């Protein structure tokens, strides 16, 4: 009798088998690129083109003194894309065409209206008044969000975005602090540019609005600076992040199509988490570009810490971590190219890499490679896995010459402050409270040093993009409930 019950269960569930295999065997995420190596190649090609243009101009300047000295070229392909326009304020949305890497298709609010934040207050997370930042980010339509003046926005609760939004802090000095802070959950096409994010703490256990048509109860948040949760096509550029409760940036739960570029990180323990858990299979499709960032003072670990996915770490400056720089578990692919790793003075913390809670017998086949990186102060990178087949000419790969330009490429990492509406002059603000001048192609640039639990427990709403794991969760729940019912009701099937 009991065996017949299992036959009944099998017959009832058999129509779902093709669907189940499609879900569990094909883990391709919406927005996942089919050839991540090609994306990495394109990033390195753009870097080398920008550096070649910069070098050519410098050679010309050495021969001809009558050439205009105020060139906007920096060698950084993202900055060279938009900072060459001295009338950038009249064409802000050009920024959306400047991303590189896996987040290059992030539209943000391109094509949408401009929304001006006029109030730094955050009085009501459910019914935010017009003029506040929260009111802008929950709207259904694409919006390019700018700020009327310098301001510090102390959030009362996590700031939950809707899709197709750009935060553009150029021309002003904007700080986001407080509860939350920024949550990108099950949405797409967001650009966050030129914003300070710091001193974010845990909040929640209350209602928070995520769109004009929905608000819901939120469990206690982690206190991340920026939490990217089940989202795609996201670009975080020229932000300064420090001192948050949990991570500065977390990318989890099937997020992909992410670029994190030109940011300055400082004063934090667990800097960046990529991947929800070793067992969460959808994160195998996670693809993240980390480029031109400065990992600065008093950082301890996770720059980033990776679980599954493909992570391209290119042309970043790592300055004296305390434990390790790049860590991982769950067999992520890590492609490190043209970075500078400056090890701490601690003789036991010289290794750039760390395989977290994994024996060598398991990680020796993981694909972790280093190409053209500069190792300083005794730093060393432990590579693993088989050599990747070279699919492009060596002339276009990132070689050590690019790493030798790290000072130039990361000179302006962090928030930029404009020094005149038409002068094309900017100040790069970081967090060291010291001042040093570097070459900026005539831009008069000054650098002013100024294991997470990602399940929030609240309702997972916000936005209009696909909830990647909903089908698999539904199917798993269906199997569990049906099996439980049949086992406990087995005696009722004696008639079989």
From TrEMBL:
Reaction(s) catalysed (UniProt annotation): Eliminative cleavage of (1->4)-alpha-D-galacturonan to give oligosaccharides with 4-deoxy-alpha-D-galact-4-enuronosyl groups at their non-reducing ends
Record note on cofactor: Binds 1 Ca(2+) ion. Required for its activity.
Bias-annotated ranges (Acidic residues): 452-461
Broad enzyme group: lyase
Gene3D superfamilies: Single-stranded right-handed beta-helix, Pectin lyase-like
Keywords associated with the record: Calcium, Lyase, Membrane, Metal-binding, Signal, Transmembrane, Transmembrane helix
Top-level lineage group: Eukaryota
GO molecular function, one term: pectate lyase activity
Protein name per UniProt: Pectate lyase
């Amino acid at each position: 009798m009991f065996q017949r019950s299992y036959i009944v269960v099998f017959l009832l569930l058999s129509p779902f088998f093709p669907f189940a295999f499609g879900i569990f065997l094909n883990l391709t995420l919406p927005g996942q690129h089919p050839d991540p190596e090609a994306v990495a190649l394109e990033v390195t090609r753009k870097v080398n083109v920008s550096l070649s243009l910069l070098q050519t101009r410098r050679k010309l300047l050495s021969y001809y003194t009558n050439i205009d000295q105020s060139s906007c070229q920096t060698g950084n392909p993202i900055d060279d894309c938009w900072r060459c326009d001295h009338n950038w304020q009249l064409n802000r949305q050009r920024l959306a065409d400047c991303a590189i890497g896996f987040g290059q298709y992030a539209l943000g609010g391109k094509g949408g209206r401009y929304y001006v934040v006029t109030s730094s207050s955050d009085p009501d997370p459910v019914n935010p008044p017009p003029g506040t930042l929260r009111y802008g980010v929950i709207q259904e339509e694409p919006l390019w969000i700018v700020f009327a003046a310098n301001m510090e926005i102390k959030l009362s609760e996590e700031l939950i975005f809707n899709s197709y939004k750009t935060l553009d802090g150029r021309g002003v000095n904007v700080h986001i602090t407080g509860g939350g802070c920024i949550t990108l959950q099950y949405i797409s096409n967001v650009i966050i540019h030129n914003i300070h994010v710091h001193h974010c703490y845990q909040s929640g256990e209350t209602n928070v609005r995520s769109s004009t048509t929905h608000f819901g109860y939120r469990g206690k948040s982690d206190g991340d600076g920026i939490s990217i949760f089940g989202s795609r096509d996201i670009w975080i550029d020229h932000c300064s992040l420090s001192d948050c409760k949990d991570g500065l940036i977390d990318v989890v739960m099937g997020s992909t199509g992410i670029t994190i570029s030109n940011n300055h990180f400082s004063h934090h323990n667990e800097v960046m988490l990529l991947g929800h858990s070793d067992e969460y299979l959808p994160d195998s499709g996670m693809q993240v570009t980390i480029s031109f960032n400065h990992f600065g003072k008093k950082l301890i670990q996770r720059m980033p810490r990776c679980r599954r996915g493909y992570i391209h770490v290119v042309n970043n400056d790592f300055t004296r971590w305390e434990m390790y720089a790049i860590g991982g578990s769950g067999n992520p692919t890590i492609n490190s190219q043209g970075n500078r790793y400056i090890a701490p003075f601690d003789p036991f913390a010289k290794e750039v890499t760390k395989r977290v809670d994994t024996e060598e017998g398991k990680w020796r086949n993981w694909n972790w490679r280093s190409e053209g990186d500069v190792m300083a102060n005794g730093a060393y990178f432990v590579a693993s896995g088989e050599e990747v087949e070279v699919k492009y000419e060596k002339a276009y790969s990132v070689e050590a010459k690019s790493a030798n330009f790290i000072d130039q490429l990361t000179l302006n990492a962090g928030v930029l402050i404009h020094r005149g509406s038409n002068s094309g002059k900017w100040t790069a603000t970081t967090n060291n409270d010291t001042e040093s001048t570097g070459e900026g192609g005539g831009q008069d640039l000054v650098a002013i040093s100024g294991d997470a639990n990602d399940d929030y427990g609240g309702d997972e709403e916000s936005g209009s993009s696909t909830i990647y794991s909903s089908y698999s969760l539904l199917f798993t729940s269906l199997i569990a409930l049906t099996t439980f019912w049949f086992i406990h009701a087995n005696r009722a099937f004696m008639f079989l």
